[in-house]
Amino acid sequence: MPANGVCSVGLEVIEDNATYASGSDSAGVSEDEDVQQLFVSGADRVTSVLPKKSDIRKASQVDEQAAAAAIAVSEKRYASLPNREHHQQFLTQFLTEVLNSAVFNATDRANKVLNWVDPEELQRTLDLALKDEPDTHEKLLELTRATIRHSVKTGHPYFMNQLFSSVDPYGFAGQVLTDALNPSVYTYEVSPVFVLMEEVVLREMRTIVGYPDGAGDGIFAPGGSMANGYAISCARHKFMPDIKVGCD
Fold first, then answer.
1. CATH architecture assignment, domain 86-182
2. Which end of the chain is more exposed for a tag (fewer CB within 10 A), N or C?
3. What gap in Å lies between CA 195 and CA 190, rounded to an integer?
4. Do residues 41 and 7 make contact, with C-beta atoms less than 8 angstroms apart?
5. Closest CA to 103 of 163, 172, 157
6. Rounded to two decimals, what is the model's pTM?
7. What is the DSSP letter of 81?
8. Domain ranges of the chain
9. Model pLDDT for residues 187-235, shown as the tens digit of each residue
């Protein structure tokens, strides 16, 4: 930060043939485009997210046109943001594949519980390498089909394990909706519908175990082991309320 506390913002226009990627959120930048990036200049220079390349042609004060260009570059790079034109067909094909292969065919007695292959062969079959560049939609669909084909069908009638049950169609629909909305059930302001839904389910569960009119409080646990830990902690606090402040 300069001594006067003011940062000047400039624009660098970089010409380079490389295609940039930014983690899982990128789609790359066309190799024949100038990559425009913002940077902060001053006593302590801070470089931008994009790596600096050679052949810097000019730097100028940011104006509305430059800002619009930077936004355009950002939109190209962060292509994982939902876009009907780019993603609707892919998501439709993906969900169709999941419904046909992972939900309906996977629970058909005529099909196998698992198409077994040895680990070494499966590693050669599946392309699981981490890459700097994004895969195409067709490649992702191929991986989807391969993942389903080589996975255990836990909803199959011949799959017997005490920890699994068949996929519930309505539960599956609820999971898709939950993932699409991606709520965090912290407060009513953040997640109004799911907070009310949680209260209804908790009250019903308290009624089932014997609380009058379902009165009381409760929380959801991420699994059986955590739920048992909560129960032991509550029981200990009931019989030893001073446990948190220490015992003589």
1. Alpha-Beta Complex (3.90)
2. C
3. 9
4. yes
5. 172
6. 0.61
7. S
8. 86-182, 183-217, 219-247
9. 999 999 999 999 999 999 999 999 998 999 888 888 889 999 999 998 9
